[in-house]
Structure formats: C-alpha cells, structure tokens
Design goal:
The protein has 92 residues and is mainly α. It contains three helices and four strands, in the order αβββααβ. A two-stranded antiparallel ribbon has the order 1-3.
C-alpha cells in the first residue's frame, strides 16, 4: 500500500461517523457533510454568542459550554475514537 492509499483510506469514515481522527496527535477532522455542517454551525454560534454577551464572565461561560458540547459530539461521532495517534497506520 502506498502513502497515497494510506491518506485516502484515512479520510474515509464508516457509516454513522462524521469525523476521522487526525493522523498525528489528538483531534478529529470532519469528513462528511454532517461533520462539516456541525463544525461550521459551532463556529458561527460561538462567534455570535461571544459578540452578544455583555460581560467577559458571560462570554467565558457560554464559550466553555459550547466547546464542551462540541467536543462530546465530536468524540461520539469520530470513527475509531479520540486518542493520541502517530501516523496513518495507527488508525483503529
């Protein structure tokens, strides 16, 4: 299997999953339209909420709540789960 085949295989998620884990490090990448929609919506809602909050304390509370909810969703919808990875072959 070539390196290009490894990369292509890495960015395919099984049915029901919206994200794949990063090849190196900790995190996930959206690979379906649902994953991209959730990521974009999270970004837009977070920016809008922060801009509308009158005090810094409220901004922090809202941002922490939104980030926590997004992280839980990403963890549940990542094919192979979230953990430290080191390379394309360390997929599942």
């Amino acid at each position: 299997m070539t390196m290009l085949d490894d990369v292509k295989a890495h960015f395919r998620a099984r049915e029901g999953y919206w994200f794949v884990p990063k090849a190196f490090g900790y995190g996930a990448t959206p690979v379906t339209w649902q994953g991209w929609l959730v990521t974009i919506a999270f970004s837009v809602v977070t920016i809008a909420a922060v801009r509308m909050m009158p005090t810094p304390a409220e901004r922090i509370v809202v941002t922490v709540a939104l980030v926590a909810a997004f992280c839980v969703l990403v963890a549940r919808k990542t094919d192979g789960g979230l953990r430290w990875r080191w390379g394309f072959r360390d997929r599942r």
